[in-house]
Specification:
Elements (H helix, E strand, L loop, with lengths): L3 H4 L1 H11 L2 H21 L3 H10 L8 H10 L15 H13 L5 H8 L10 H12 L8 H10 L1 H18 L6 H9 L5 H6 L12
The structure holds fe (ii) ion (2 copies).
One fe (ii) ion (FE2) binds next to helix 6.
């Protein structure tokens, strides 16, 4: 993408700061920074990763009622498989704000924003970078996060799968249903456990390749 988008971040910041809670705003900055670092490590476009990271939660309104109204106001259609998963609706709104309000036209960036809460069976390198940066940026805290960050720098598909597994454990422990896109992603990115991944050189590992 044209690096000119980076110059427009000064327009995005005040809008994000106003629309998001402070914690969510700081999280967005963390995702932007870690996504940019992963992009540099894995040969992805830095400006694309920065834009997708910064804007991935820009539609995360405070209440589900506000979010529902915003979806209606923007004329967005919630995909049928998302109907019972209100937690992922903000990704749809975020992608629309990025496109309509912030002028992001690159479908790769918009798609990375859309799939960031769930993942999907076919993840591009940028999709995985945003997913992982969202899950492991510096303000996040959970057991195993350091290993996940190391794995994200070494092996994107393996780290994506591991992050999905951790997320799945968290969701099922809460008695919630796993989103069908996450189920498809788990099936598509099956592979060896984390200990094996961290102890073997990258070329001996197997798993789905970035689309
Ligand atoms: Fe999100
Ligand atoms: Fe997020």
């Amino acid at each position: 993408m044209d690096n000119q988008v980076l110059l427009r971040f000064e327009e995005f910041y005040p809008v994000l700061r106003q629309n998001l809670k402070r914690k969510r705003f700081l999280h967005s900055l963390g995702v932007m920074h870690f996504a940019t670092a992963l992009a540099a490590r894995h040969g992805e476009d830095l400006a694309d990763a920065a834009a997708a990271g910064l804007l991935h939660d820009c539609g995360r309104l405070e209440t589900m009622e506000e979010l529902g109204l915003e979806i209606h106001r923007r004329g967005l259609a919630v995909p049928p498989e998302d109907h019972e998963f209100q937690k992922v609706w903000h990704a749809l709104v975020s992608a629309d704000i990025a496109a309509v309000d912030f002028g992001i036209t690159d479908e790769r960036i918009l798609r990375a924003i859309r799939v960031h809460p769930t993942g999907d069976a076919h993840m591009s390198r940028l999709d995985m970078i945003v997913f992982l940066a969202d899950y492991t940026e510096p303000t996040r805290r959970f057991e195993g996060i350091k290993e996940l960050r190391i794995l994200a720098e070494r092996d994107l598909p393996a780290a994506f799968r591991r992050a999905l597994e951790v997320k799945t454990q968290y969701i099922t422990a809460q008695g919630r249903t796993l989103h069908p896109r996450s189920r498809r992603a788990l099936a598509a990115y099956a592979g060896p456990p984390l200990e094996v991944l961290l102890s073997s050189p990258p070329e001996t590992r197997h798993g789905a390749s970035p689309a």
